[in-house]
Amino acid sequence: MDKAGVGWMVLVLGIMVFWANGDNYVAAPLIVEVARDFHLEISAAAQAITAYMLPFGLFTLLFGPLADKYGKARVINLAAWGTAIFCALCAWASDLTSLSVMRALSGAFASGILPVTMSLIGDSFGQDPKEMQNALGKVLGMMFLGGASGTAIGGALAYLGSWRMVYLVYGLAGLVIALIMWRTIEQRPGTSAGVGFRAAYEEALANTRLLKTVSIIFLNGFAVFGSFSYTGKFVELRTGHNILWVGLILTCFGLATVLGGRKAGSWRQKYGNRLLLWSGTLAGVAWGAMGAWTSPLLICLSLGGLGLGFIIIQSTLLATAQQLMPQRRGTVMSLASFNMFVGGGLGTLVNGQILNWVGFPAVFLLAAALILLAGILAMVCLSKVSLIPVKMS
């Protein structure tokens, strides 16, 4: 594939993960309307969120080996079509049960989009590690922007129509992107035909360096996703803004990941592994101060600092993990994605208890310390893995 073709592929995949991750995050602000429509308590309506997240976490481990065996573009297409179709069908749910079933099926398919997308990019840039990390950063940034802006987009659509319109718009947008992907992205054969799930994961789990790398990804997910889940409520309480303005403020995190992700590989080549320590420090300081702010501007600066530091560390870890097992990129990215989201889920659970006991500042301070630790561990562990040529100043 020529340079223009690769650039187009990265753009299309970035738009796809934007909508797919937005579909993930958009459900939370809709729960109040869903409960009202179906005459339920909010706690009962939250079943629709759980119905999405559980299969999303479990099926993440399924798609990577399938992509390695049958071809990454083919599996991404399947995941994209399934996610879009079942997301759109949520608009016609007649009760909580039917909504939960559609959300579960959408989540199961969506779990294959991010890890396989990351591995396809790795295959396309395997001979140019710097550009590979830049491309990974771009797509990751679009993913986080989709999640961060999901609240604002969902709130605006729900205000103009209803919660059903939100699912319909996200589903139709996904169908358009899935059709474009199917028509324009080259279908390549798998890289490990004949390898089963057990053999694939046995090989991955036997790689000590890979386990260290995905463990730091778990820590990053615990810190960032586990605390970001409560940021919307924090911003609402501190600023008094409505859900639409809160969503726009949260978008600062996503914008910072997009901007930082585009240059992450270039910066690492220039500054070396010290960049990981600097990034952890930036994210840690910014997020540790978050609990003290009431000004929307300062909150935006903290969100931006977190996003910039996080995306540099995360894209470096993902690029390194892929290069440790280039013939099993799909399996590796499934393992990495599983750790990232399980870490986020566990972090959300733990931080929920901390929030009840101590309050918001403690949630942000703990996350800040863990992000700094992730930066230090990444610098130490990756200094022993000479995969991306670096120019030390």
Overall average residue pLDDT: 88
Uncertain stretches of 5 or more adjacent residues: 387-393
Instruction: State the end-to-end CA separation.
Output: 34 Å
CATH hierarchy: architecture: Up-down Bundle
The number of helices is: 18
The CATH topology assignment is Growth Hormone, Chain: A
Number of E-type strands: 0
**Major pleated sheet:** none
Any idea what the shape is?
A: globular
The CATH homology group name: MFS general substrate transporter like domains
Notes on the protein architecture:
The protein has helices at residues 3-25, 31-38, 42-45, 47-70, 72-89, 96-110, 113-124, 129-160, 163-184, 197-205, 208-228, 231-239, 243-261, 264-271, 274-288, 296-324, 329-357, 360-382. The protein is built from 18 helices and no strands. The radius of gyration is 20 Å and the shape is globular. It has one domain: Up-down Bundle (Growth Hormone, Chain: A), CATH 1.20.1250.20. Mean pLDDT is 88; it is low at 387-393. It is an all-alpha fold and 393 residues long. Helix 8 (129-160) runs antiparallel to helix 9 and helix 8 packs across helix 16. Helix content is 81%, strand content 0%.
